[in-house]
Each structure stands twice: as structure tokens, then as C-alpha cells.
Amino acid sequence: MAFDDSLVKDVLKHADIVKVVSAYLPVIRKGKDYLAKCPFHDDTNPSMHISPELQIFKCFVCGTSGNAIGFVSKYEHLSFREALKKVAEICDYHDPRLSDIREAKVVDPKRVPLIKCLHDLTVYYQYALNSPEGKAGLDYFNERHLDADLRSKFMLGYAFKDGKATCRFLEEKGNSLKTIEDTGVANNINGVYADRNQGRVIFPIFDTNGEVVGFSARRIAPGPEAKYVNSPETYLFHKSNILYNYHNAKEKARIAGYIYVLEGFMDVFALYRIGIESCVATMGTALTAEHIRLLRALNVEIRLCLDGDLPGQKATMGIANDLAKAGLNVRIVDNQNSTKDPDEILNSDGAMALNAYLNKLVSRVDFILNYYMNTNPLQTTEQKTQLINEFIPVLLAIRSQLELDTYINKLANITGFAPDAIRNILKTAREKPAETNFKQVINEYHPEKKILRRLEFAERELLYQMLSNPQAVAFYEQNIGGFYDETYRIIANFLIEYAHEHEDFVPVDLISSLETCDLPEKDLLINQISTLYLERNHPDKCDESLLVNLQEVINQEKEKIFENDTLEQSLEGKDPKEKARILSDYNRRRLRKKNI
Description:
The chain is globular. Helix 17 (364-375) runs antiparallel to helix 18 (381-396). The protein is of the alpha+beta class. The strands form 4 sheets. A 5-stranded antiparallel sheet has the order 1-2-3-4-5, with helices on both faces. The chain has a 5-stranded mixed sheet with strand order 13-12-14-15-16, sandwiched between helices. Mean pLDDT is 84; it is low at 434-452. It folds into 5 domains: 5-99, Zinc finger, CHC2-typedomain (DNA Primase, Chain A, Alpha-Beta Complex), CATH 3.90.580.10; 111-234, DNA primase, catalytic core, N-terminal domain (DNA primase DNAg catalytic core, N-terminal domain, Alpha-Beta Complex), CATH 3.90.980.10; 246-370, Dna Topoisomerase Vi A Subunit, Chain: A, domain 2 (3-Layer(aba) Sandwich), CATH 3.40.1360; 376-441; 451-564, DNAb Helicase, Chain A (Orthogonal Bundle). The chain has 28 helices and 16 strands. The protein starts with a helix and ends with a helix.
């Protein structure tokens, strides 16, 4: 390792994996362990097990596993060193050695010239905004109440009408024409490069680290052209991965305890104008799995504030359901069918009105109930029945009995049906679920439920004992020539090396050693080791007789495999008569050996 191994041990000794995972996901206690919805695959029921005793986690569906550092590293896409510091921060552990860690950033050589080109262009756009030609753009921003501080913070600008001059400027700054084209900024028409954003005001778009990766350009004057021109998909810019202002909002949100999710960047600016900086915008796209991952990493309440018309409400309902399925705490701004967005409310009614609007929050279930009431006339029995049928899946997802009773009574008041009648419908829906039984699926993936061959069972048992007992490692080294299973063999070799350097076998430390080693298959090994540690069907006591019995089984089964391989080789290419003779001799030898 490139840094002190004892630092890793000290951080993990002071870390609580339940606290670390809870900083990112809701967890549920089950016995002495905890469960959470796994963030590393599309999980709908909790399938990730967290063991406070062993200080490790393991998903029994996708197989992802590790210790607290591994979890943070995988969840936030951080290096081991960065994740180590993050775990210490979450667990409030301070050590001067942490400040000495200097992470050598992994540089993507393909990103470097693109980032530089976009930075040069952003500065040029800001310069253009303050030029005589840029006054039209400056007037537009002033009309939208975007003052100098906001313009500076979000690096707003203007693109000169001479798009070819813009490309020449970028070339003079050392950017190649290929790089300029690859940023998505320039159009190449018959070998002539020109800025596609020419004559428009510019809104830079940032990635999660605050680097400019693209632009949204708005026309100023009326005309037949599209109001907005956005950067095309490039190596850097993927609209489905970006939440506008996330780079600024992530720390503000953790302090505030919430984050507003809005439609576009003008709404973000409106909230900034009244002092709310914990806000992001989807930029008009549907909420994606990457958006949900980014929001989940904040571990705060999500406050949805989208358009108030029916399409906007429908989108809000879908997004709220997706967030709830992902285990996020979500509330919704009750727009009461208003079609005004935050920017319009602020400009027409003032800061107090916008603040009041943003703080009028309802639960997801209340919002869905209101949506169904607004979109379904309730004049006939059939219409009321339809409302109940559409709302049943929402009720089935509610875990709190008090909350469930509240909404059953609300639904009864709205429709005129008796609460008991709605409860009977719920009972029928539970007894005949249309969805997959995910618990059964999880059990089918669980390694303890698999039928193991005799050799695999013996090797697995010996490997389990080696994970917790240095004596078992020594026994393997002296008496077993090597496991037949390749993965078990690699783990055993790693344990031999580990045992020579360490006196004890703490699971969390062993996994850390794997995390920082150079083995290409280390993720597979970590998954297998975590699975073994979490299994409950092993003898508590490891004595000499257990190890000898396992050795006998392993040797017997390996000998059978060797005999079968030898037999297959001897039969290869022989005629039927010769094959029959060889098989007869083989069976006689086996029978004689059995009777000895």
C-alpha cells in the first residue's frame, strides 16, 4: 500500500458500517443485522444485508459487497483513498494522517483537451456579454432580474454573431479544430467551422464537479429559430446524467436537509434570488437512474416543484413514485393547479409569495390522491370505483398502519365507500399480488440455498474456517495441495500471504487488504469472502478432526475427478470394442478398491 495500513485499520475500528450506509440509504433493522435496498442494481425490496458484527455489507441479488470504505467507494465512485477520508468524515473520526493523504487524481486524457476548450469558450462568452454587441444579451438578463452576482456565479455569457471568429479564437488559444468539433460547439459546413450558439445568450452546464461540459443557448430576438439550442451528446455531455446546479447544491442541501427539484435553470435562479441555494433542475428531461443516484447520495428530503398543469402533475406523480421506490424521502410543492413557475411567481407576486409557495408541501400520497381527484370526475359509482382501483397500489406501498388508516378514511370520505369495503379490497389485493415475489427471488440467489457438490461443499467449509482461523490456514498450507475451485484457490493463496503478515483475521481488515491489492479479480473475491462470512450453516468450533475429515473428502473427490479425466483421455479416439474393454477394466478396478 502507498500509505499507512494502520490508518485504514484505525478508521475502520472507529467506523460503524450501519452509520455509513445510513448516510446514503434508509436501513431497516432485522434481528441483529440491517437491510437496505441495494443501490448497485434496480432493487425494489431490501436485498442488501449489513452486518454490524462483521462490519461488512453484501447484496444477495447482485453480489456487491465489502466494508464501509468499499461501500462509499462504489456508491460515490471514489478511489479507496478518497473513500477512506469520507468514511472518517461520516463517523467523525479525526486523525492527522488523513490530512497527509494526497490523492493522485486519475486523469482521463480524452477529457483534458475538451475541458480546456470549453473553459476557454466560457471565458470568451463572458467577455462577449460585456462587449458593445453583448449589450442585447445583458439587457435580456437584466429583464429576467439576473444581476451581476448571479451572472458571475453561473458564468452566464453571450455568443458573438460571428461564429467563425469564435472558432478562430479557440484555435488561437491552442485548441485543435477536432477538439472544437468534439465539444459539440462548432458546426462544420464544407470545412468551415462556426459556433452553433452565435447571437444567443449562454447558460453553461456543469458536471457534478463544477466543470463546464456543455451549453444551453437562448435566442434573444423573436424569430423562426428554436428558442433554445442545447449542446449535442458528446464525450463529456450526457443530458440524462446532469442535474443543473448539482455541483453547487450538494453541500448546501446537506446543511439544509432538503433539496428542491425544479424544471429548468430559470427556476434555479429564482430560488437563488430569495436565498435558497439547495436546488437543482432536470432541464426538461425525465428523471433517470443516474439522477436518482445523485439525489440519493445527498441523503436529504427531496422536494419536487414541477409544472402545475396536468402533464406536469402526471410527470410529478411518476417522478415521486420513482423516488419512493428508490427509498428516498419525498414531498411535493402543492401548486394547487397553478400554472405559474417559481420565476413567474417571484416576478409577479414577490419573494414572500414564492417562499410561501415553496413551503406548502404535501406528502406523495396526498399529491397522488389529489391528482386522481382532479383527473377523474366522481359523479358515478363506476368513476368512484375506478379511483379506488387506481389508488390501491399506492395504499399497498404504505407500511405505517396509522398512515394507511388515514388515507383509507380520506378515500372513503371522497368516494362515499365504507372504510371496511376499501380494506377488503386491499386484503384481496394482498392475497393475490400481481407483482413478483421478490423475497423468493432473493432466497433463490442466496448461496446457502444452493445444492453444493460434495467436493465444493468440503472446500467451501475449509475456506470458511481459514477465514476465521490462522490454524486452518496452516493446515491447508501443509496438507492440501490446492483447491479444485479456482476462486477458492486464489482466496486461499491470498489468505496464506495475509496470515504471514497479520496475527488476526478481522473480516473488515481482510477486505480492506483486498480492496488495495492489485488482483484483477478482487471484486469477485470480496463478494465470495463476504458471502462466506455471512453464512450461518458452519460449525462454530474448528478442531483437528473437522479439518482432517474435510481433507479426506477433498482428496477422495479430487482423486475421482482425476480418474474420470484419465478415463476420458484413454477412451478418446478408440473404437466401440476397445472402449467397452477399457470401461470394463475401469469398473473392475473401482469395485476392487471399494471392497478393500
